[in-house]
TrEMBL record:
<dbReference type="GO" id="GO:0032259">
    <property type="term" value="P:methylation"/>
</dbReference>
<keyword id="KW-0808">Transferase</keyword>
<dbReference type="InterPro" id="IPR002935">
    <property type="entry name" value="SAM_O-MeTrfase"/>
</dbReference>
<dbReference type="InterPro" id="IPR029063">
    <property type="entry name" value="SAM-dependent_MTases_sf"/>
</dbReference>
<dbReference type="GO" id="GO:0008168">
    <property type="term" value="F:methyltransferase activity"/>
</dbReference>
<keyword id="KW-0489">Methyltransferase</keyword>
<protein>
    <submittedName>
        <fullName>Methyltransferase domain-containing protein</fullName>
    </submittedName>
</protein>
<keyword id="KW-0949">S-adenosyl-L-methionine</keyword>
<dbReference type="Pfam" id="PF01596">
    <property type="entry name" value="Methyltransf_3"/>
</dbReference>
Amino acid sequence: MYQIINTEVEKYLKSLPDIEDPVMRKMEEYAAKNDFPIIGREGGKLLYLITKIKNPSLVVEMGSGFGYSGYFFAKALKKGKVVLIDYLDRNINLAKDFFKEGNLLDKAQFRVGDAVQIGQEYKNIDILFLDLEKVRYLEAIQILEKNLSEDGIIIADNVLYQGKVVFEKEDRKAKVLDSFNRYMFENYFSVILPIRDGILLGVKK
Ligand SMILES: C[S@@+](CC[C@H](N)C(=O)[O-])C[C@H]1O[C@@H](n2cnc3c(N)ncnc32)[C@H](O)[C@@H]1O
């Protein structure tokens, strides 16, 4: 794993005062205990901010895990819903439990199955969040882009892939992510924020 942000800067960022939400904290503890990769507090707060600014009617998450990223979307939603999709029943059931505890069940829809397949059922997606298998990012956007609303936003996590897109260009996943990033920069107005593992934001040109 390569260091994307200077360690001291990262420490400073983590030391700033933060929101307290017992369910969020519980989810972070679950992730740490089970070594489950989540977008993390800074990434989650970015999802929250974008949702507040955008005021979307429909958010679709591809690869929801046990609901941590979805929780930030749901918490920020004023209207509409977030669709959480994951392959694993176990993850989605856990997400339902956490959402229930956070009183957010009415903001969410839970789906089990392949996110690329299920995602296609939704039209006019205002925020499409990609956090599924990295090798499927390019396929996912190419299939789902027609389902985005006019000013839809794409958010993709892990696009720097622990720095491997820069330092291990021959790595199979790094290659696919590099192709995805290039596609997003050519066809969309995109930026990559070096938060944690790299988060890409894109809108139609
Ligand atoms: C990195 S974890 C998701 C973390 C979550 N987004 C968060 O930040 O809290 C990736 C998840 O995607 C799921 N997944 C991977 N490929 C998928 C696919 N094609 N369809 C549905 N789920 C998928 C895995 O089961 C795993 O739970």
